[in-house]
Amino acid sequence: ARSVLPAVLGADLQVPLGSGATASFANFDHAATAPCMVAVAEAAQAFLPWYASAHEGSGTLSAMSTARFEEARRVVRAFIGCRDDDYLVLTRNTTDAVKLLAMAVPDGTTVVVFSSEHHALLLPWQDVHRLPIPSSVEDMLASLDDALRTLGGPVLVAVSAVLNVTGELMPLEDIVALCRRHGARIAVDAAQLAAHQPIDITALDVDYVAFSGHKMYAPFGIGVLAGRPDWLAAARPHLAGCGATVHVGDGTVTWASGAARHEAGGANVVGAVALAAACQTLQTAWNSVMPYESVLLNRLRSGLAEIPEVVEVSLFGTTSERVAMVAFTVDGVDSALLATALSVEYGIGVRHGDFCARPLARHLSGERTAVRASLGLGIGVDHVDRLVDAVRTISEIGPRLFYVAEDGAWWP
Ligand code: PMP
């Protein structure tokens, strides 16, 4: 039942429809940014009177802010099962975390990524070896195995835990096993996993994990890069400035070690407190969150599957394991118009387009692009039914605002 689930803000938000009526907003865009958890908002609000600089001042508030910041870091470390010597750097988001890792990769190391990745994981590397979009799990593992066999020198494999376009889970354990067999390091982008399933860096035996607060109910602009200390300790500071140094002389500088090396400038203490609250809440709620989301997802997918015009989009086939989202097209209805109609006529927010993973999006649905409905704690069964009903109506009569003919022509 919903009552045992962590609550989020905005669950009863009324939004205006084009018709002049209002509807409670159905937020099927959790994968882009999840709503704020009530526990997160409460933690942030309770902390705000105490909010001050961290690691910079010596007043009481600053000492308290510093303590809360470091306590939050410990909570996040526990949430992802960090090893004792792992660094856990608080960043702006996943994009920032991956960029930090990219800058820390030692010269001469090849980074291997699949072209199916989100741009944040696809683009920031210096010396990158891109593998084609895999056609199946077996193909993915075979192509990675091949690359690891033939590439000389040190290798870092960067892979997402969950594909952000389709929600499909990647075969992480097998990928880790391949990396270990060939002596490669592995970095996991957990941006689309962190809100839906636990991830444990030690149990999974991966070298780095990155994720974003805003996709796991913790706004305020925070993200995480956690992992092996050696590259991060040797890397040029991600941000050069106050807090990242132990000594600055005339023309000389000694950089700090530890996470501080990469966290110069005013710390996002509220973001850290918020993220820690989200971690603590999720950690005690997985037993209700995971089955709840799987019920919603099954209901959504089976509802859509009954609509003849709907085609579910997936990389490894519709039976592949997935979390929290479904991507689909509707025959005869342009995806941009479908997304607009869902918003304007039904108060349903979805995403359409390239999903910042253009090669994969184009591979899956060509120029048509797909619509992605992603869910989480802000979604109820009633929202799912509303979405399915709306897609059915639109697929039968076309959106009332626009209609796309078979030949692609459209008119208002
Ligand atoms: N990786 C994946 C798999 C994502 O889905 C996203 C967000 N769409 C990102 C990275 C980037 O996250 P952020 O925008 O928080 O940096």
From TrEMBL:
Task: Read off the PANTHER family from this record.
Answer: CYSTEINE DESULFURASE, CYSTEINE DESULFURASE 1, CHLOROPLASTIC
The protein here is known as Selenocysteine lyase/cysteine desulfurase
Q: Which GO terms describe its molecular function?
A: cysteine desulfurase activity; lyase activity
Domain named Aminotransferase class V: residues: 27-387
Keyword Transit peptide in annotation: no
> Which cofactors are named for this entry?
pyridoxal 5'-phosphate
Per UniProt, the keywords (alphabetical) are: Lyase, Pyridoxal phosphate
Q: Which PROSITE patterns match?
A: AA_TRANSFER_CLASS_5
Kindly state which reaction or reactions the protein catalyses.
Answer: (sulfur carrier)-H + L-cysteine = (sulfur carrier)-SH + L-alanine
The yes or no answer to whether the keyword Nucleotide-binding is present is: no
Similarity comment: family membership: Belongs to the class-V pyridoxal-phosphate-dependent aminotransferase family. Csd subfamily.
